[in-house]
Structures are given as C-alpha cells and as structure tokens.
Amino acid sequence: MLSRKITIKNPSGLHLRPAGVLSQTAMKFKSNIVIEYGEKRIVAKSVLNVMAAGIKSGTEVNLIVEGEDEEEAMKTLVEAIESGLGEK
C-alpha cells in the first residue's frame, strides 16, 4: 500500500471535468484507489463520489493506492493531479 499527501491545484477544485479526468485515470489501474479528505474516504474510480466530495482548490488530500500496479498508479495519478487534471 502506498500513501501520499497531495494538494489539489485546480482553480475551481474537483468539479465535473477534473473529477472525470481523475476517475478515468484511476480506472486504468487494477489497484484500489482511495482519496482521504477529512473524515471521508472516496473511491477515486467513481466520478460521482469524487465530485460529490466537494474538494476545493488548495485542499490537501491523502491519496492511497493498494494493489498489483500501485507504484505505476500512484505515479500517474500524482502527475495528473499536479498538472491540473486537464485544466490550467
């Protein structure tokens, strides 16, 4: 299991478009991927769960990846989040 704290950089947080990019990226991997946000544990492969969490710009979340491709999944997801999930 891998865990990493990361800050959401999108100016408008994880609304529909960046939540969709995050979920689609997570779905490429076999590993279980969870976002811890406060007391919430959000399944990253569910765009509705990610969007419903209401994660705002500048929020630090804990990304947890567990499974056979966890290292590649963590690297890819961190890069996607740090690059703004398709937004500038």
What does this structure look like?
- The chain has 88 residues and is an alpha+beta fold.
- It has one domain (2-82): HPr-like (Histidine-containing Protein, Chain: A, 2-Layer Sandwich), CATH 3.30.1340.10.
- Helix content is 35%, strand content 26%.
- The chain has a 4-stranded antiparallel sheet with strand order 1-4-2-3, with helices on one face.
- A hairpin with a 2-residue loop joins strand 2 (32-37) and strand 3.
- Helix 1 (16-27) packs antiparallel against helix 3 (70-82).
- It is globular.
- It starts with a strand and ends in a 6-residue tail after the last helix.
- The mean pLDDT is 95.
Furnish the topology, listing elements before pairings.
Blueprint: E1 2-7, H1 16-27, E2 32-37, E3 40-43, H2 47-52, E4 60-66, H3 70-82
Antiparallel strand pairs: 1-4, 2-3, 2-4
Helix pairs in contact: 1-3
Number of domains: 1
Largest sheet: 4 strands, antiparallel
How many helices? The count is 3
Q: What is the averaged pLDDT score?
A: 95
Shape: globular
Order of strands, main sheet, comes to 1-4-2-3
Order of helices and strands: EHEEHEH
Determine the CATH topology: Histidine-containing Protein, Chain: A
Strand content: 25-35%
**Category by helix and strand content:** alpha+beta
The portion of residues assigned to helices is 25-40%
| CATH homologous superfamily heading | HPr-like
CA gyration radius, whole angstroms? 11 Å
Q: Uncertain runs with pLDDT below 50, 5 residues or more?
A: none
| Level-2 CATH architecture | 2-Layer Sandwich
Domain HPr: 1-88
Protein name: Phosphocarrier, HPr family
Subcellular location: Cytoplasm
Keywords: Cytoplasm, Phosphotransferase system
